[in-house]
Amino acid sequence: MRRFLPDTFTILLVSTMVLASLLPISGEPAEWFGLATKIAIGLLFFLHGARLSRDVVVAGVLHWRLHLVILASTFVLFPLLGLAVGFLPQTLLPPALYTGILFLCVLPSTVQSSIAFTSMAGGNVPAAICAASASNILGMFLTPLLLGLLFATGGHGGFSFDALEQILLQLLAPFILGQVLEPWIGNFIRARKKLLMPVDRGSILMVVYLAFSDAVTESIWSTFSVRDIAVVIVLDILLLAIVLVVTMVGSRLLGFSRQDEIAITFCGSKKSLASGVPMANVIFAGQSIGSIVLPLMLFHQIQLMACAVIAQKYAERGGRRQAEATAQAAAQ
């Protein structure tokens, strides 16, 4: 049962939402807190760039078929499913929450959890590292482009070059700087992962607190009912289930190995909270982003619980296959 319980970070996220609901920040303090949040986000992406080894990139980038499948799942299949959700009546899914679902569908894959689950299940870890990292880098360009395209398709407005410019300045520029300095500081940062983890988690919590403070000021909890939240949870589960089935079955039909199938399944079905919350803060600046990131935060916990179970099943099957192979070799 422990794998179904929320992880520490999810508990912190919920606690941050509760804190923002009880003690929201506003006015001049919120402006200073917003500036500190932007600095923390820049530091976060700088560290992501500095952590990513050049050797890992070269080793993984050669497996281009696997990467194309993962990118297609992340930036084609998910957005199409997001468009399909748009056919639901507004009485069932309010427009603000649908915006959150649509935003969720155009986000890049996670990095840490995709790699961790791939490793736990016995999959192709180097390819997973490269694929998840490439997804996040490309996502800085593709997420605002796709979001603008989908909004234009649905009659909600088009692409914003200002949003893309802000993402490039706030997220991509620090990432590139980290990559440039990686040969000198990469080993130092990778060796101190636990010490630097508060930057990862802290920057996200800061954005969530600021977002929900704004949302509380605008009465988010009186805007959406328990039924609205339940509908979002059901849609998140359906989105994840469909993509998991497509990636599993599709990778087998395309002739990928078991190790590659595992990497495709976990990298292709995830959505990054670490990238999504800062992007929402930039793309939807001046709007109430609490309702927009709510579907993403719910999806985050759902994907962790589901993938923990799937990874365990893959690991058990791999152990049985290895035991059978060992027994057959001994019999011969």
Description:
- The protein has 332 residues and is mainly alpha-helical.
- The chain has one domain (2-316): Na+/H+ antiporter like fold.
- The protein has 14 helices and no strands.
Question: What are the main properties of this structure?
Answer:
mainly alpha, Na+/H+ antiporter like fold, 332 residues, 14 helices
Number of strands: 0
The whole-angstrom Rg is: 20 Å
Structural class: mainly alpha
Helix content: over 70%
Question: How would the blueprint of this fold be written?
Answer:
Elements: H1 8-22, H2 27-51, H3 54-61, H4 64-85, H5 95-105, H6 112-121, H7 125-153, H8 161-191, H9 193-217, H10 220-223, H11 226-253, H12 258-269, H13 273-283, H14 290-331
Helix pairs in contact: 1-9, 2-8, 2-9, 3-7, 4-5, 4-7, 4-11, 4-12, 5-14, 6-7, 6-12, 6-14, 7-8, 7-12, 8-13, 9-13, 11-12, 11-14, 13-14
